[in-house]
């Protein structure tokens, strides 16, 4: 059967009119698509360099070492490796990219990829079914992102002939294609792993690696032998610009041609003058991540519940986003197709104080350390949370990370925090993966230390749902469990915005704001 897709909210495309506040194209909650006023551009022009300032600079182009997401290297690695499939917001479906086709059995227990003929890696070796299986095995063995979800859902991956790969599921999985737009769909050539243990990025994408200064600059050059023809651009340059405001200034002055923005106020400003790809997401920044491992304050449910009852998302929105965000404590707000009838937890500072007092009688010293970024929004949110928790008896010490790299290491690698700012950035098109990653007991991305058999079963129910109504019911049960156990504090939905200058054409968005640049050109 054809690829089944769970639709993703409202679509924005083409030219949109400015709203009365002068803040650019109107973007209704749930919107996904290209926005802004931009001419067609005419005949593509060959040559030139496109400079892109992402959210977090990559330190490695190995998809098992760098989180292959839109904000953390996904666009960079898609340029080198391409994707087996991409997500198309306009049709709300998964489209073949490196693959020629992707089909499923009627019950979603088997998925089959047919590869294009003649595709080669940048070292000249063929990208065939055996290469896809080998890259998939390598990714799982090295515990790349989404590995636990993949292994929980997939029984086997087999090359049935030179151009066919068959994925057999352990149970029905209608959302399976979403995993192929991330690391499992970035096929790494066998020649990337050197005998001395070093890694050289060799992919089948439109661009090849030229140079990298980790944390500063990455340069990629166009491939003459790319399967879909030589890219129009000669060079891609990925640069590091701290915070959103300098990125917007660089876009307006021509210092860069594309950027990645997360802050609601910055997005509102940028879309007033720049076209780009806008993607509404659930559980956006900030999510307060609570470490509930033994020895941490959050190991006590009473402390987690007290914070849940005391922190007002409306206040965070005003302080950190100038009131331009989408505050709320539900996983899926009313605009989402997965919204359900489980009510949000109501604020109650009196009950929060009682819970803190009870925890203190059992040894809680009333102090929590909050680790966050040094961005203006990060500091504003931290100070607001500190102010809201003090009256219920919790003293918050704030520590700031020097860089996104430092934050990732401390939170995701060392797991050295009491509470920390984060975001799960869940797309309506593919909600399961990041829910699994954040909450399942076996997930290496479960930085919270959640070990809840009931939560694991609820996540399995989400994964195996064969239709929207069944999945929505499973989401409702999951929401009830999150309300009860407070593994994290949802404070806002939000959006990614990838703006580009008006002379940039041909950029193709995929899921999670990963941008494909093989057909991009500069007028």
Overview of this structure, please?
With 523 residues, the chain is of the alpha+beta class. It has helices at residues 74-81, 129-141, 147-153, 244-253, 264-270, 301-310, 313-321, 349-361, 376-389, 404-413, 432-439, 453-464, 468-485, and strands at 10-12, 31-35, 49-53, 85-88, 93-96, 99-104, 110-115, 154-161, 164-169, 207-213, 217-222, 235-239, 258-259, 276-281, 287-290, 326-327, 367-373, 395-401, 419-422, 488-490, 492-499, 504-505, 508-509, 515-516, 521-522. The chain has a 5-stranded mixed β-sheet. A 5-stranded mixed β-sheet has the order 10-11-12-3-13, sandwiched between helices. A hairpin with a 5-residue loop joins β23 and β24 (515-516). α7 runs antiparallel to α9, α11 packs antiparallel against α12 and α12 (453-464) packs antiparallel against α13 (468-485). The radius of gyration is 23 Å and the shape is globular. 53% of the residues are buried.
């Amino acid at each position: 059967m054809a690829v089944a897709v769970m639709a993703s909210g409202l679509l924005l495309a083409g030219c949109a009119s400015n709203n009365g506040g002068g803040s650019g194209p109107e973007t209704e909650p749930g919107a996904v698509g290209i926005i802004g006023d931009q001419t067609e551009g005419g005949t593509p022009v060959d040559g030139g360099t496109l400079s892109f300032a992402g959210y977090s600079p990559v330190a490695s182009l190995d998809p098992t070492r760098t989180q292959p997401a839109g904000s953390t290297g996904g666009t960079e690695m898609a340029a080198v490796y391409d994707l087996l499939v991409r997500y198309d917001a306009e049709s709300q479906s998964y489209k073949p990219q490196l693959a020629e086709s992707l089909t499923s059995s009627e019950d979603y227990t088997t998925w089959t990829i047919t590869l294009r003929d003649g595709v080669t890696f940048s070292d000249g070796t063929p990208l065939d079914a055996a290469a896809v299986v080998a890259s998939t095995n390598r990714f799982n063995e090295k515990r790349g992102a989404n590995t636990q979800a993949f292994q929980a859902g997939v029984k086997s991956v087999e090359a049935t002939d030179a151009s066919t790969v068959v994925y057999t599921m352990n149970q029905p999985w209608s959302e399976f294609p979403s995993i192929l737009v991330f690391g499992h769909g970035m096929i790494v050539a066998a020649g990337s792993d050197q005998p001395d243990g070093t890694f050289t990025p060799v992919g089948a994408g439109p661009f090849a690696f030229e140079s990298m200064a980790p944390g500063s600059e990455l340069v990629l050059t166009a491939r003459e032998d790319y399967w879909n023809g030589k890219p129009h651009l000669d060079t891609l340059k990925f640069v590091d610009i701290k915070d959103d405001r300098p990125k917007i200034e660089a876009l307006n002055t021509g210092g860069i041609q594309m950027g990645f923005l997360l802050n609601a106020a910055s997005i509102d400003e940028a879309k007033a003058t720049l076209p780009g790809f806008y993607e509404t997401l659930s559980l956006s920044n900030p999510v307060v991540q609570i470490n509930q491992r033994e020895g941490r304050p959050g190991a006590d449910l009473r402390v987690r519940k007290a914070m849940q009852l005391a922190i007002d998302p409306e206040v965070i929105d005003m302080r950190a986003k100038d009131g331009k965000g989408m505050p709320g404590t539900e996983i899926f707000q009313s605009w989402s197709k997965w919204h359900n009838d489980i009510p949000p937890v109501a604020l109650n500072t009196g009950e929060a104080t009682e819970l803190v007092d009870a925890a203190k009688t059992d040894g809680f010293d009333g102090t929590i350390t909050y680790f966050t970024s040094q961005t203006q929004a990060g500091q504003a949110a931290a100070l607001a949370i500190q102010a809201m928790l003090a009256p219920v008896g919790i003293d918050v010490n704030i520590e700031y990370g020097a860089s996104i790299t430092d934050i990732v290491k401390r939170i995701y690698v060392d797991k050295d925090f009491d509470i920390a700012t984060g975001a799960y950035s869940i797309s309506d098109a593919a909600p399961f993966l990041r829910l699994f990653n954040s909450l399942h007991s076996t997930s290496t991305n479960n930085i919270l230390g959640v070990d809840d058999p009931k939560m694991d079963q609820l996540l399995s129910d989400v994964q195996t749902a064969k239709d929207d109504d069944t999945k929505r019911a499973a989401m409702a049960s999951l929401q009830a469990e999150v309300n009860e156990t407070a593994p994290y504090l949802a404070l806002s939905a939000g959006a990614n915005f990838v703006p580009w200058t008006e002379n940039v054409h041909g950029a193709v968005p995929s899921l999670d704001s990963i941008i494909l640049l093989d057909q991009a050109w500069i007028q």
